[in-house]
Design the sequence.
């Protein structure tokens, strides 16, 4: 009895812990609190499949309980053999037809939603953004706008935004749980989907396809702002000239010179340059996360510059530039932290 009770307690504890942890998380990083059209449609499918499969589970449990009770071995009937129904045509038809009907109930809406979210027939009438997946970061090219960003995707709230996605290396998967479903990002072909956010705010995105040692660190953000703020952001980004953006301090000026001397511009663009070997740094100072996952502080930037491998294993920046001492790294970090093309930021979204 002691052994049985111990196992029961362990099962209860694990179940309770799993239930407790299931409630952890952020509102803007969950598919269960939809804030966009794609996520809303996905939630409807989740509810449909949960109701169907939950109903099947309950019915099976009821039938099982009935059978266990009705056909239990009774005293004095140890040798009694109940009527056998093996090969019963009626039962065979029932448990073949019912699953088919249930699959159809779930498959038809799923197929309709999939085609709906992949429909790009009106793409020319809306904002189009080329999304490029890299190990382990995301690049966004606003088609027809002459704007390039990395890691932070700004969109107008309440409007369709078409994403034309491709990868430069391996298969990735674009997923912003709160506002959209998933879409594979392949090296061979462009996959298109659209997203639409109902509310202003910052929505957290993940790569949902294992793509290497830092797959779990390939995070990004979608920042949904009002139409007026979005138009201002576009104007600010288009009018930004990195050559005219003078560093605010002597240390930052030295950092800019070191940035250029160490050939950082060969990989990182500042402004609307199409260079995308590494993330675009135009609005780096306004980001709220470093490399998608770290706190955006000067100290973390210095740590990244000196040893990016320790923060994001397998990244393509490691070993591609001369080793920098503490003083050089601090000056470059100072320069990067003052790169601010606009006052529309993730922290101001929805406020």
Sequence:
């Amino acid at each position: 009895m002691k052994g049985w009770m111990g196992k029961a307690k362990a099962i209860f504890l694990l179940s309770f812990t799993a239930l407790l942890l299931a409630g952890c998380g952020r509102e803007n990083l969950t598919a269960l609190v939809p804030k966009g059209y794609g996520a809303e449609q996905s939630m409807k499918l989740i509810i449909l499949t949960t109701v169907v499969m939950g109903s099947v589970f309950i019915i099976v449990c009821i039938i099982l309980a009935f059978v266990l009770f009705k056909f239990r071995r009774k005293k004095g009937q140890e040798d009694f053999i109940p009527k056998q129904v093996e090969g019963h045509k009626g039962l065979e038809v029932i448990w073949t037809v019912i699953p088919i009907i249930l699959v159809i109930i779930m498959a038809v809406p799923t197929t309709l939603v999939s085609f709906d979210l992949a429909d790009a027939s009106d793409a020319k009438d809306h904002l189009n953004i080329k999304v490029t997946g890299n190990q382990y970061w995301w690049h966004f090219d606003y088609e027809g706008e002459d704007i390039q960003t990395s890691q932070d995707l700004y969109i107008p709230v309440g409007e369709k935004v078409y994403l034309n996605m491709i990868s430069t290396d391996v298969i990735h998967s674009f997923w912003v749980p709160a506002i959209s479903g998933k879409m594979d990002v392949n090296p061979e072909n462009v996959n298109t989907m659209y997203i639409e956010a109902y509310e202003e705010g910052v929505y957290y995105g993940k790569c949902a396809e294992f793509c290497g040692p830092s797959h779990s660190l390939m995070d990004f953000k979608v920042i949904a702002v009002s139409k007026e703020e979005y138009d201002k952001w576009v104007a600010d980004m288009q009018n930004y000239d990195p050559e005219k953006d003078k560093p605010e301090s002597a240390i930052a000026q030295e950092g800019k010179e070191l940035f250029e001397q160490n050939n950082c511009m060969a990989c990182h663009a500042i402004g609307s340059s199409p260079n995308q070997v590494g993330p675009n740094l135009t609005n780096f100072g306004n980001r709220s996360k470093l490399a998608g996952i770290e706190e955006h502080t000067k100290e973390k930037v210095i740590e990244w510059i000196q040893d990016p491998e320790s923060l994001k294993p397998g990244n393509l920046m490691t070993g591609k530039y001369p080793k920098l001492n503490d003083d050089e790294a601090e000056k470059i970090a100072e320069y990067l932290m003052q790169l601010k093309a606009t006052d529309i930021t993730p922290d101001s979204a929805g406020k």
